[in-house]
Amino acid sequence: MITAGIDVGSLSTDAVLLRDGEVLAYSIVNTGAQARAAAERAFEEVLEKAGISLSEVDTVVATGYGRMSVPFADGQVTEISCHGRGSAFLNPEVRTVIDIGGQDSKVIRLDGQGNVIDFLMNDKCAAGTGRFLEVMADRLELSVAGLGNEDLKAERAAEISSMCTVFAESEVISLIARGVPRPEIVRGLHRSIAERTAGMANRLGVMPRVMMTGGVAKNPGVVRALSEKLGAEIVVPPEPQIVGALGAALIARKKRSGKA
Q1: Considering the entire predicted model, what is its pTM?
Q2: How many alpha carbons fall within 13 Å on the CB side of residue 202?
Q3: Which residue, among 129, 94, 89, 96, has the nearest Cα to 230 in the 3D structure?
Q4: Neighbours of 210 (CB within 10 A)
């Protein structure tokens, strides 16, 4: 049996194919301005990678903010449930999931079966999200991927007091004008994200083991800063960006066969 999960996020659209509970292939594409086109593109790409046709896929479940824009999906599930299910599949010991996506962040508590028992979500402001890092990287003339390496060069963190994207950008401009080294500014940005996320996590209550998902989990500077703020080790899966799509594919499998 082959099932698929499509996670249509604000910045990327991810697709995962499962065959009998094992990952067959995955794809990650930019969402751009048209969620439906991105979903179709991600699905075509993952089918091509797996070397199978659409007719061989038994069930497709969509998740993410654009989940209603996937015309070929057999069902839609919230990203909270999908990130929980995907994280538990990757590591059954996980009890807290921290997902920092393109324009929102989530902290999710799981039980021993990977079911969501509680969560908090910030979807009202881009502060502390992937979009926040995009804006800051652009201002610092870095790629988003380059932020983590720049952090490693820092001897200390610059003080950045505002988490509002607009005001924080103004602070960064001021720091640049004062000649503060770029690595220190980057580390300061990472610490500000960690403080905001840790505050949300502590309000919910952090239970080990902790896993971080979403594109921002690819930034080792953010992961390290958040681990320090929480006082807990953070597990990052090999490809944290596809965890939501993986969870959707697992839910599709359960819908089809009744097996978790």
Answers
A1: 0.92
A2: 12
A3: 96
A4: 21
Do residues 50 and 22 touch, judged by C-beta distance below 8 A?
no
On the question of a common fold for 1-91+239-260 and 95-236, the answer reads: yes
Mean confidence (pLDDT) of the chain: 92
Structural domain boundaries in the chain: 1-91+239-260, 95-236
Q: What's the CATH architecture for 95-236?
A: 2-Layer Sandwich (3.30)
Q: Is pLDDT of 62 > 60?
A: yes
User: With 0-12 CB in 10 A as exposed, 13-18 as middle and 19+ as buried, what is 259?
Assistant: exposed
Beta bridge partners of 4: 17, 60
- Specify which residues 2 forms β-bridges with: 19
d(CA 161, CA 68): 38
What's the burial of 145, exposed, middle or buried (CB within 10 Å: 0-12/13-18/19+)?
Answer: exposed
Residue 6: pLDDT band with limits 50, 70, 90: very high
Provide the CATH number for the domain formed by 1-91+239-260 in this structure: 3.30.420.40
Residue-wise pLDDT tens digits, 218-251:
999 999 999 999 999 999 999 999 999 999 999 9
Instruction: Tell me the pLDDT band of 144, cut-offs 50, 70 and 90.
Output: confident
